[in-house]
Structure formats: C-alpha cells, structure tokens
Design goal:
Layout lengths: L7 H23 L2 H8 L3 H4 L6 H12 L19 H11 L4 H7 L7 H29 L4 H28 L9 H16 L13 H16 L6
Helix pairs in contact: 1-2, 1-4, 1-7, 4-5, 5-8, 6-7, 6-8, 7-9, 7-10, 8-9, 9-10
Length: 234
C-alpha cells in the first residue's frame, strides 16, 4: 500500500496546530512534549526532529501562528530560543495589530456619524480577536506560568487597549454622543467581554456551533450600539 510522504512544511503545520491546542488547554508548565506529539499523531522521538526542546515548541506556536514561516521554513529542528525571545516575538507581532478606527476616533472631536464610528471600532476589535483567538488563548493560559509574558500581555498590551476604549467612551459621553454610564471602565469591559465571548470563548466550549459566525458578530455590534447610543442617534 502506497503511503504518501508528508512534507516537512505540512508536518510543521500539524505540530504547530497541535501545540497551540495543548498549550492553550494545559498551560506552559502542564504541557509535555509527549502531549503535543500525541495530539499531532507522531511519536515523541519524531517530534524532536522538528523542534529541539519544549521552549522551541512554544516558540513555534507563535512563529507559525503569526506567519513568520509562511515563505521560508527555517532549518530543522527549530533551536531553543534565547531567554525572552518568544515574548519579544509576541510583543512585536501584537504591536503590528492595527486599531486605526479607535485611534482615529480619539483624534476626532465631532464625529459626523457616531453610530458608524462605534460600530467600526467594535467590528475592528471583533475581527482581530476572531482571527487571533487560538494564539490569545495560549498567551492567556501560559501567562499564569510565565511572569515575563504576564507582565507584557496583562500589564501592558491588554490594559493599554482597555484604557484607550475607556477614554473614548468617556469622551463621547461627555459630549453627548454616547450614553453616560456610571463607570466608563466597566462599560469598556462589558463591550470587550461581549466581543471576546462570541469571537473567541464560544469556540472553546459546547457553544461553538450554536451561533452562526456572522450572526454572532452582527448581534454583538448591534447590541453594543443599541446600548450606548441615544435613541435619536441610532
């Protein structure tokens, strides 16, 4: 019986996908290379022909997930990264994630269409999280075990976005474009957690197939706009 040869690129993709799932489920400390090999359908020994160590496997998750190996596959096995190299890769790649609609809104005093503005901001964030959630799941789960990752993601990247969204909601409420809320930080958190659950968290439980993807996205956007925009502006 002829068994087709699996290319190195296809095998690396399989391993990276398996590692993303396992690290996202078990965390950094809880993940063993044998767990990833089993998920990938190969032996633990075969895994080490593609990555040198668990640290290299963790690096592979993000290098592959962010498209660093799309054009050229590096020499294998992938070597163990230097200390801090994986977190630096994550920092660089998340730094490239655009948020032009929110930044533009913060620079605009008098929006011509506040509904379109708010819709665009939330839609922009929804699509980002929808596209990156498997990697974000690994980051959030593994940050519990890796202080440097925790300091970057929770201490700077995530909190920075919440701060900008809170500033936007306060600014627009003060000028009468959006409803005033008792606490703009809580309102910002409600907006983002709604986005996160439908764009990300539902895929990790039994609700993945409950909602059509487009209906879920549109439902969140319409709900946020209805909640925050006064009746005359809707």
């Amino acid at each position: 019986m002829f068994v087709p040869r699996v290319s190195a690129r296809d095998r690396v993709t399989t391993i990276a996908t398996a590692a993303t799932q396992v690290f996202g489920r078990l965390g950094y400390r809880g993940t063993r290379t044998a767990d990833v090999a089993k998920e990938a359908g190969i032996s633990n020994g075969a895994l080490f022909t593609y990555v040198e160590s668990k640290e290299a496997l963790f690096y592979l998750v993000f290098a592959h997930g962010f498209g660093r190996f799309d054009e050229v596959l590096p020499p294998l096995p992938l070597p163990t990264p230097a200390p801090g190299e994986t977190v630096e890769l994550i920092r660089q790649e998340l730094g490239k994630v655009p948020a032009p609609k929110l930044r533009a809104a913060l620079a605009e005093d008098r929006p011509p269409d506040v509904r379109a503005e708010l819709f665009g901001i939330v839609d922009e964030r929804y699509r980002i999280i929808e596209g990156l959630w498997p990697l974000l799941a690994v980051i959030e789960r593994c940050a519990l075990d890796l202080p440097e990752l925790d300091a970057f993601y929770f201490g700077r990247a995530r909190s920075g976005f919440f701060a900008r969204l809170t500033e936007y909601l306060k600014m627009r409420a003060e000028d009468g474009y959006l409803r005033a809320t008792p606490n703009a930080e809580v309102a910002a958190r409600l907006v983002i957690e709604s986005v996160v659950w439908f764009a990300w968290k539902r895929h990790q439980g039994r609700d993945a197939r409950t909602y059509d993807d487009e209906a879920a996205r549109r439902g969140v956007l319409d709900f946020v706009c209805a909640a925050l925009i006064p009746g005359r502006e809707r």
